[in-house]
Design brief:
mainly alpha, four-stranded antiparallel beta sheet, about 5% strand, globular, coiled coil, membrane, transmembrane helix
Length: about 725
């Protein structure tokens, strides 16, 4: 009797109730947010049994304190690194360029130059095409790049530096190196038989005993969903009880008995096996690769547990992706049309000046939207075609794609228009009202301003608020369930998306910072604001399970930032001055480019610490297991390791069972729901909606075959 009451208390969350209790949903969201301390005698959420009243971290908390909540702290450390790199460049070269440009007088003397701050502080203000030369600025650019490379080498080689994103501890990588994926196993083999079989192997002519730390069976999720759906449909036909979902879907019910496991779980013939250290994993692969398909594993958090099925026409998706790559071409047409309008309306009146400036803002917004659409289309296509074995390749491709899209949308069109479009000198095309000078400044302000705004409330969160208002006040009798309401109040922080937006802004600053040094202070101020706003959002909305930042300080990001800074000097000169072979710094520039390319492609260890693949010991693996979960814990269907332990302990007496139940209750109070529980909670809603669609189609079909009353008469 006591056991039943405890089990009932552990499952009080009525996630399928409809309409939902929004106050409970709001409290559930509060209970999931990270906190520093718990308020004494705090109220608990009836759904997850977590504390609702908590003390949050102060805004001044050191970022490395948040390492216990996942990998999100890496994003903040990466922002710090980018801020430091830009600050180095601005202090050494940008500040001098800004001061010297402010001393120029070309804009004041010209009738075509719009008298604005961005033109006064621009290189154009002293950029005389006939006799321009600033060896000091070119020298400072070279020094700034060298100092940046020294700083990067420092954080790469100094393991104890908190800013070092590239070499901070990552225990999942240790587990990955000690693990292998084995396929072509007989589908009727049990976990114990698999462990017993693979514990004994032959390496050459010698028999070897392997120590298997973990064995995770991969099940067919589609089979589980199909069997549950059939069982639920049958139950609904028998008693028409909607809440019968709970007795068939809740995993602690359907997987308690061996016959239930045999019915619902279908072994796919593949497992993840973790050995005690890396060299043992290498020997294990050599022992069994002839009889089984043995391959290296992704990290536990990177595994696709369900076989990905391409949705829609793959050829059509590829065509959409190809069109997205050419999305910058219409921008050139729009830019040319705007340029022709400005030539016809040069801005002699104040109202016309405002109109021309407004057109530059419109152009900047069009560039921003078209860029986001292009990135989204390409990312969706890559997500559809990527698989476990090629995930690292597609990650690197998407990272390179960020640079190419930035170049195609933000760098080529302005230069192309400045050189080939309209009449007048190239300098006049830049600094006149509504010219490319204002276009570029508006592009910076748009990218920086929208990032700040979207940090507070992005499109997804705005849509989420609209849905909350709609269901809470206007559609109170909807079929929205309690689980969906809980999800509706949970704010998802996508730091990977934020990192892409921030990288685009920094590349723009690196490229146009030579021509418009004011871009550096704009970007630095924007990074500071974004950093503190993101930190505030993390402290007030951060949920441990949802916030991840799967990104490491890649060499490609460093390379394209530095090359953009270096290339901006020469491209601007060639575009507006033409090629001048007599300038000594032209040859110095090409020498720098050749040296950097040589370093990045052939001698990366001069800057980035070389990753030597040394055998990972069992001590390191045991240390990893304290901070990370193995593949079994990430398996959404069932944790076989935990289940097998519970199965072996079924013969203990009732008092021991009661004590274990109380211990489970205490564990649930101290920790959040497991991945398996979250999977089945989400599965309930998924099956509910699918069955509702089936019933709806059945009702429509019945209605269609009913005879018309007039025909009966």
């Amino acid at each position: 009797m006591q056991l039943n009451s405890i089990e009932k208390y552990l499952n009080v969350g009525k996630l399928l109730e409809s309409p939902p209790n929004f106050e409970m949903a709001q409290n559930h969201n509060k209970a999931q947010i990270i906190y520093k301390e718990i308020i004494r005698n705090s109220e608990r959420c009836p759904c997850c049994n977590q504390f609702i009243q908590t003390i949050k971290y102060p805004l001044s908390t050191d970022i490395n304190v948040f390492s216990e909540y996942g990998t999100s702290y890496k994003y903040f450390n990466l922002v710090k690194i980018k801020f430091i790199l830009l600050s180095i460049f601005f202090i050494i070269a940008g500040l001098y360029n800004l001061i010297q440009s402010s001393k120029g007088d070309l804009c004041i003397k010209s009738q075509t130059c719009k008298k604005s701050l961005n033109n006064y502080l621009s290189l154009l203000n002293r950029f005389d095409p006939e006799n321009y030369q600033d060896d000091v600025l070119d020298t400072l650019y070279t020094i700034a790049i060298i100092v940046q490379l020294v700083f990067i080498r420092y954080i790469s080689y100094n393991i104890n530096d908190y800013y070092n994103v590239d070499h901070d501890y990552d225990c999942e990588k240790t587990i990955q190196k000690c693990s292998l994926k084995i396929s072509s196993i007989h589908p009727n083999w049990s976990r114990d038989r698999i462990i017993q079989h693979f514990s004994n192997g032959m390496l050459g002519q010698n028999q070897v005993q392997y120590q298997i730390v973990d064995c995770c069976l991969i099940y067919d999720i589609s089979h589980l969903e199909t069997q549950l759906k059939l069982q639920i449909i049958q139950a609904l036909k028998e008693n028409q009880d909607r809440l019968s979902f709970n007795q068939f879907i809740a995993h602690q019910k359907i997987l308690q008995r061996e016959q239930d496991r045999n019915r619902y779980l279908k072994f796919s013939g593949s497992v993840y096996i973790t050995l005690s250290y890396e060299q043992e994993a290498i020997n294990f692969k050599n022992s069994f690769k002839l009889n089984f398909d043995v391959e290296n594993c992704p990290r536990p958090s990177d595994v696709y547990w369900k076989v990905k099925q391409l949705k829609g026409n793959q050829t059509l998706e590829f065509i959409k992706c190809a069109i997205a790559f050419c999305g910058w071409l219409p921008n050139i047409g729009i830019q040319v049309a705007k340029n022709n309008y400005i030539l016809s309306n040069p801005g002699k009146t104040q109202d016309q000046l405002y109109i021309n400036t407004l057109l530059s803002l419109v152009i900047a917004i069009i560039y921003y939207i078209s860029t986001k659409i292009c990135i989204q289309i390409i990312q969706n296509y890559i997500r559809q075609i990527s698989v476990n074995s090629k995930r690292q390749f597609w990650k690197e491709y998407l990272q390179a794609n960020e640079f190419f899209i930035n170049t195609m949308f933000y760098l080529w069109p302005p230069i192309f228009i400045a050189v080939y479009s309209g009449v007048g000198t190239r300098q006049e095309k830049l600094w006149r009202s509504g010219g490319l000078s204002e276009d570029i400044i508006m592009i910076f302000l748009t990218n920086a301003g929208l990032q700040i705004i979207f940090t507070i409330c992005d499109v997804d969160y705005a849509w989420q608020l609209i849905r909350i208002i709609y269901y809470k006040y206007f559609n109170k009798q909807s079929n929205l369930t309690q689980y969906e309401a809980n999800e509706l109040f949970s704010k998802d922080l996508n730091f990977n998306k934020k990192r892409i937006d921030l990288t685009n802004l920094i590349i723009l600053c690196s490229y146009y910072g030579y021509l418009f040094p004011i871009c550096y202070p704009i970007t630095l101020i924007s990074i500071l604001i974004i950093y503190w706003l993101d930190k505030y959002q993390f402290i007030n909305n951060g949920i441990n399970e949802k916030i991840k930042f799967k990104y490491r300080l890649q060499k490609f990001i460093i390379m394209m930032t530095i090359l953009s800074q270096l290339g901006s000097t020469q491209i601007i000169k060639i575009t507006f001055l033409g090629y001048t072979s007599s300038n000594a710094f032209t040859y110095i520039y090409y020498v720098q480019v050749i040296i950097l390319i040589y370093i990045f492609f052939y001698k990366k260890e001069w800057i980035f610490k070389k990753r030597i693949q040394t055998p990972i010991t069992q001590i390191e693996l045991n240390r990893s297991l304290q901070n990370n979960e193995l593949y079994s814990e990430y398996n959404p269907i069932i944790n076989d390791k935990r289940w097998s332990i519970q199965e072996k302990e079924q013969q203990v007496n009732e008092i021991q069972l009661l004590l274990r139940a109380l211990e489970q209750l205490n564990n649930q109070i101290q920790s959040k729901y497991s991945r398996q529980e979250k999977f089945y909670n989400a599965l309930q809603i998924k099956l509910l909606r699918e069955i509702e669609q089936i019933q709806k189609k059945e009702r429509v079909g019945i209605a269609q075959i009913q005879p018309i009353q007039n025909d009966i008469i």
